[in-house]
Amino acid sequence: MLERIARHLLCSSDPESMSVGELLALEPQSIQGLNDVWLGYTEYPGDPALRRELATLYRNIDADGFIVHTGAQEAIFSFMHSMLASGDHLIVHMPGYQSHYAVAQAMGVDVTPWLAREESGWSLDPDELDAMLTPHARAIVLCSPHNPTGYVPTRDVFDAIVEFARRNGLWLFSDEVYRGLEHDPATRLPAVCDVYERGVSLGALSKTHGLAGLRLGWIATQSKNVLARMSAFKDYLTISNSAPSEYLSKIAVRHTDALLDRNTAIVRANLDVLDAFLARRADRFEWHRPRAGTIGFVRLKLGNAERFCADLLERTGVLLLPSTLIDHGDAHVRIGFGKRNMPDVLGRLDAYLDECAA
């Protein structure tokens, strides 16, 4: 992986993390609890106490409406294999996270990309969905807040997507791993699982909480069918989750507001630095400022993304992600602004551009 080679990451999708000690410090009495964690098998849908904590993040989902997974990736893989089959049709919000479409394609599912419109701030047009519908359509994959653009639909667009799915009896799988990291909390949308009976919301502690090392993800849904089929499929994956991870995750979820405040503060400060950089380098780059999350999608005005990223990495050790790696042409790079050291790493990019100009 390039991340192993790079000395400076400027494409990270997750925010600043913390140590186990820092997390335990949020509840000093929890140290003894960690010592007492039993290292046997845990319950396959997740620790009941953890699922009760997760339920506080939703409006209409109780502890029985969750399956806890080893990261969001496993949950995506499980949903695709549980709810879709070869010959089915899937509509996918793109550009996007590769697993949203590649897992289904590998299964023989027909995937139609629902392209976000760069010229209108990476927005989605629900009126396009009717033309994409086929008799074999089974589901829509939505990513909101969006990876990699940071787009958040308006409430009207969101409601139109839900209504289209309901009218056509489609599953609506909504990747919401950045939900909570809206730069303006007023733009936060409801979780799909709270408003749609065939909605499946994907959550994780990697993004909003900044705790990727816990490897903790989940799906939340009102659908007993989804819960039953995904539960059975999980028996062929990890079976159950890590007991220490689930214990630490309970602490993290209880302190969601504090962790969101911490990570949002870092993001806002870094965005100010990034805004100034992009304004100064307007001859080289342009973007639609993200509304949420820790990443943005920047268009190159000169050259192509793959060659630019390769040369930058070789000469500076700074890693950006070219759009070729997410199957979206060769004109964009993904940039991350969730880490405390982003201004320093951005300075290395700035110096590289000066050197190229000279």
TrEMBL record:
UniProt enzyme class: transferase
EC number per UniProt: 2.6.1.1
InterPro entries for the chain: Aminotransferase_I/II_large, PyrdxlP-dep_Trfase, PyrdxlP-dep_Trfase_major, PyrdxlP-dep_Trfase_small
SUPFAM superfamilies according to UniProt: PLP-dependent transferases
Keyword Transferase among UniProt keywords: yes
Gene3D superfamilies noted in UniProt: Aspartate Aminotransferase, domain 1 (3.90.1150.10), Type I PLP-dependent aspartate aminotransferase-like (Major domain) (3.40.640.10)
CDD domains associated with the record: AAT_like (cd00609)
Tree of life domain: Bacteria
Protein name as catalogued: Aspartate aminotransferase
